[in-house]
Design goal:
Distance between the termini: 27 Å
Structural class: alpha/beta
CATH class: Alpha Beta
Radius of gyration: 18 Å
CATH architecture: 4-Layer Sandwich
Strand content: 15-25%
Shape: globular
CATH topology: Purple Acid Phosphatase, chain A, domain 2
């Protein structure tokens, strides 16, 4: 069983309705193994290496398998466009993939929609992302006469299909007792009350307290030297763009192991 829902937020004095990113739920027995992959950040070669490890491991297991990408596909590393194009392609038979939205991915979306309003993305290592799309931000701003004229340059550089893919990314996945989100969850807060900002940006108090709910949360967002097992949480971001290693955690047969 696959469940899909969208969180509807009522905001603004005029009652404007804003639809948040989608959240997914799969049946606990839908997959024989789940592979959670940490933050990629433009590290295309490291992504291919991680997938090779996953495919080799998955080949010895019956049934369907699921790869959960934990977000932050762009920025910092040199190959954001190649990473996105790769993740947009289908995988091998019997393997599904869910790519969750990270805060860097969401900020990229906002910048494409409104370069001036979303300009804080440029502080996140965004120049590497735009360069991977063939755009030098300083030159483009000069040519466009500032942020107001940048939209047409972005539209030419970034394919509409890529923007649509980023907009479609869900922000949370629940499979049985496991929750997958880019950053984590707000402790002791019902799932339907978790905001997109919580799920994509939170660090404390989640990192020290854990979810304080009957789930194990698998997340990225906070880089560590190795995969971290905390209070009912597993942190999988090992800064692939700097360390050269994209970490993968396998959940299968009641066990959690590194791949």
């Amino acid at each position: 069983m696959i469940k899909l829902w969208r969180k509807i937020l009522d905001t603004g004095s005029e009652g404007d309705v804003v639809t948040a990113r989608s959240r997914l739920e799969f049946a606990a027995d839908a997959y024989s193994a789940i592979y959670a992959v940490g933050d990629v950040h433009g590290s295309y070669i490291e992504l291919l290496n991680a997938e090779c490890r996953i495919l080799q491991d998955a080949s010895s297991r019956d049934g369907r398998k699921l790869i959960v990408m934990l977000g932050d596909y762009v920025d910092r590393g040199p190959c954001s466009r190649q990473v996105v194009e790769h993740l947009m392609r289908p995988l091998a038979p019997q393997i599904d993939r869910v790519s969750l939205c990270g805060n860097h991915d969401d900020a990229f979306c906002h910048f494409l929609e409104d370069p001036s309003g979303g300009r804080r993305w440029l502080d996140f290592g965004a120049a590497a992302t735009l360069y991977s799309y063939g755009l030098d931000i300083d030159h483009a701003l000069q040519k466009a006469g500032g942020f107001a004229g940048l939209s047409s340059h972005l539209a030419q550089a970034v394919p509409a299909a890529h923007y649509d893919w980023f907009k479609s990314l869900p922000v949370m996945l629940k499979v049985g007792q496991f929750l997958f989100a880019h950053a984590g969850v707000k402790p002791a807060t019902p799932l339907d009350a978790q905001t997109d900002e919580d799920l994509m940006w939170i660090r404390e108090p989640f990192l020290s307290r854990g979810p304080e709910m009957p789930y194990t949360v698998v997340h990225g967002h906070t880089p560590t030297d190795s995969v971290t097992f905390g209070k009912n949480r597993i942190g999988v971001d090992t800064a692939a763009y700097a360390s050269g290693h994209l970490s993968v955690v396998r959940i299968a047969d009641g066990h959690t192991d590194l791949v």
